[in-house]
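Progress narrative, Year 2. Work on Outer membrane protein OmpA from Chryseolinea serpens advanced from sequence curation to structure prediction during this period.
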Amino acid sequence: MKTLIISFGLSMVVTLVMAQEPEILAEGKVTDSRTNKGIKANVKYSSIPTGSIFGRFNDSTFSFPIFGTAKYQITAEATGYNPRTVIVDPKDIDANRKVLRDISLTPTGQTMRLTHLIFAQGKSTIDPKSFGELDEVAQMMKENTKIVIQLEGHTDNQGSSKANLALSEERVEAVKKYLVNKGIAKDRVKTKAFGGSQPLSNEMTQEARALNRRVEMRILKD
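Result:
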């Protein structure tokens, strides 16, 4: 806070002036999920929930100021890729007063792993830490109203194959329920369970088992 003193002859006015906070910048790049190389994309952003602040870019990078405490949604679209929406929060500001958020796009027809989706061990209960990523999926579907997705559930191949199939089905149904509760129509979210039949790794290590336990998203219609 600064003090501004203005003098008019024998009169004096003392005004307290609030120092303006430096602006916060949201910055990031759009990349191919396979190669990690930059992709020129149509990027649009808007404040949540009103959308009163908005803008767009046509590039592989983006940067825009964040005002106040509002969250912003950023949607990236490129030919040959599935669209994706992410949410940035000014609470995630770094030491340089920036919120960094890259957007990785998956080629059309390929599945995208929900990398931050966590379940309670052996159960279909979604960990609250996963809500942010699922909220981004819901927001992407609201932005692209014709999109239909398929959630594909996988487990590791330890134990009963019947139990693993049931668990993978319960987990994708739990994710579907979450998205429906966020306003997505049921018929836009398909589910498919694979149990442990499609491992990404056949190694018998804890890391490999964790890699095989996953939910992937496939866009069936856009």
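The radius of gyration is 23 Å. Confidence is low (pLDDT under 50) at residues 1-20.
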